[in-house]
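Cont'd.
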Amino acid sequence: MGVSGKIHPIDTRLEELGLVLPEPPKPAGKYRGSIRGDRLLFISGQFPSSNGRLVYQGRVGDELSAEDGRDAARLAALNVLAHIRAATSEWNEFGYLVRLEGYVSSAKGWHQQPEVLDGASELFAEVLGEQAGHTRTAFSVTQLPLNAAVELVVIASLLII
Amino acid sequence: MGVSGKIHPIDTRLEELGLVLPEPPKPAGKYRGSIRGDRLLFISGQFPSSNGRLVYQGRVGDELSAEDGRDAARLAALNVLAHIRAATSEWNEFGYLVRLEGYVSSAKGWHQQPEVLDGASELFAEVLGEQAGHTRTAFSVTQLPLNAAVELVVIASLLII
Amino acid sequence: MGVSGKIHPIDTRLEELGLVLPEPPKPAGKYRGSIRGDRLLFISGQFPSSNGRLVYQGRVGDELSAEDGRDAARLAALNVLAHIRAATSEWNEFGYLVRLEGYVSSAKGWHQQPEVLDGASELFAEVLGEQAGHTRTAFSVTQLPLNAAVELVVIASLLII
């Protein structure tokens, strides 16, 4: 419940979609999961993990299919949402998503990273509606920390309340 | 023409340089080409494309020369400018460039990425003068989405008008 | 000495730690070392260099050990601090670190990038205390410009004074 004592519309939408946000994943080193900088909220890189375990590892287009990659992006996006909810008084200070950088661990010569990242962008649109906003940048990398399949880095805007 | 009905000095400079800005390239997935976050403007990753077609594909230092790479960076920079112009009421709300991240698809062992990205930085200086500003970060990657030679990610500041 | 004529606590801490900040490294191309965007300070990508010479080159987990990588991250972090100090009237306008992106040139199959980047995060914590703040994103890359071992990209917040 939000500070007003009412359920926030975004939480209602999550429930309608049958989605449960996890606890925001703990940082993997000596840094914070999220921090404010002026009226922006910066979220540390998020991975396709669940309960502290990486669910999708390996390269898309080779060890993993594009469909696996989409699912990985969607799972990492849930972790992003968990951080935003925790950092915005349960959505009450959340403006919209500003920027999504998506890193896809990719097989050599495999170039369909935008398709994979649509897994995240579509989840954001379903849950956040107009507040999904966001510019996006897709990257193809040969490996990610912890051999993750996907890493998402998000900046959101904050409301002044 | 700007909102004032006068041609903006940046458009005059473009004309003097014989440069014509394209339409801002459409996003390659479910996201936006640009978005405001507080007084900053975030632009989605831009490629060396023209009329929806990637003009420079492949790795610099191998399939492409450093000179090709510079031209690719310059072309991608024109697409960045097209987005900024469209998002700032034809430059009237544009402050200056804050950050340029440049990703260069590079042959193994080839390390002259800064030279390639100067193609973008020099175009910005020619067109925007003092408003070119910008910090820069160069990256060498083994491949980019759609096999592009270069990808540019830009943040600009906005004037409060 | 700060504008007030007194030594800033951060400079005192640097001295206690026996650390001397270098001159802010010059840009490697046609851009600026740092720039303000609204109340944020953007720093160009910093390398493990000293007196204009790259001290750590090559891939971590192969040509360099994880310990070398940590030292490289620490050296690059000193260059970041040098830029921040110069851009904030000797710390007087410095708020806190918002974001650290860390790029580690990595051997194939080597995934301990977070350990390397803790070299930077720990230095920031020692020198800046609570103002170290920062979210972090770790990247594994196959090569960096100039064959550097590590590259750090930082955004800081500014105080309004």
